[in-house]
Amino acid sequence: MAAEKFKVGLVQMSATPSPEENLERAIVHVREAAARGAQVVCLPELFQTQYFCQREDSALFDLAEPIPGPTTVRLESLAKELRIVLIASLFEKRAPGVYHNTAITLDRDGSRVGTYRKMHIPDDPLYYEKYYFTPGDLGFKACETSAGKVGTLVCWDQWYPEGARLTALQGANVLFYPTAIGWHPAEKAEFGQAQHDAWRTIQRAHAIANGVYVAVVNRVGHENGNIRGNAASGPGLEFWGGSFFCDPFGRVLAEASHDKEEILIGEVDVKALEEVRRNWPFLRDRRIDSYGPITSRLID
Fold first, then answer.
1. Candidate list 7, 53, 76, 118, residue with the active-site label
2. Could you tell me if residue 105 is left (phi over 0), alpha (psi between -120 and 50 degrees) or otherwise beta?
3. Catalytic-role residue among 42, 53, 143, 155
């Protein structure tokens, strides 16, 4: 039976040019989060590498691996050893020429209880994800874990209220967003504060509108997409960190810095979540009979 309270650990980390080193460093961070009492631990988006989508390079498809695969096996063993729920974002090779940006949820016995393939795929300067990732085809999903019911979305998904709503409606008590988002150096002075504020605000709004906790796990550091010494040219991206954990009121209970690795610990209180929903009954008052047009691209 799921507990009324459980602690989550959010691992804000940077990435080196070595995927193997990044995996080992992530394992160390997960161990630290567990030692600090976290029962559910989440890693950032594509934590094994620097953010390679800054360029279109067919050789980088070699970074992907099947699920289950070698990394999955390592993480399953880690979750089982530490008796934790572990959420990890991986570059999935599903079939020749078909790749996904995928988050897996492992329970404390090492079993895989959730697989989510990123649904919204961006294509912006230095975020060329459409080149690498096939859009997810599993839908929005929440999964039962030994700690409680959780939902996982990935990065660009965090801007879409529909994804948060559909995941929350499946009973998730907390929405996890493993993320890789940062500033273009040339834009930071003019737009940086507004961009970060919008990112933080939209996700706090998901917590309020759905009566759930929201846990956002970003990477940190300046990157040129350096993979084993092969870096992209250009200014790169400054990942802004700022990982945070907020309650169903949207109150930020824990927040990381913009410039260093940190592990945040927060507590999900299912009883408090129930109390918030009783007083702010947004789910009760939804006019589901009137929302059919939401599936239209535009309403002309």
1. 118
2. beta
3. 155
Return the amino acid letter for 268: V
Strand order in the sheet with 40-42: 112-117, 98-106, 85-95, 40-42, 5-12, 262-269
Residue 141 belongs to what domain range?
Answer: 5-295
**Rounded CA separation 250/290 (Å):** 27
Tell me whether residue 223 is one of the annotated catalytic residues: no
Domain count, the chain: 1
155 belongs to the catalytic site: yes
Average pLDDT by consecutive 10-residue portion of the chain (300 residues)? 87 98 98 98 98 97 98 98 98 98 98 98 96 98 96 98 98 98 96 98 98 98 95 92 98 97 98 96 96 94
Please indicate, yes or no, if residue 300 is contained in any of the structural domains.
no
Whether 21 is a known active-site residue: answer no
What CATH number does the domain containing 45 carry? 3.60.110.10
pTM comes to: 0.97
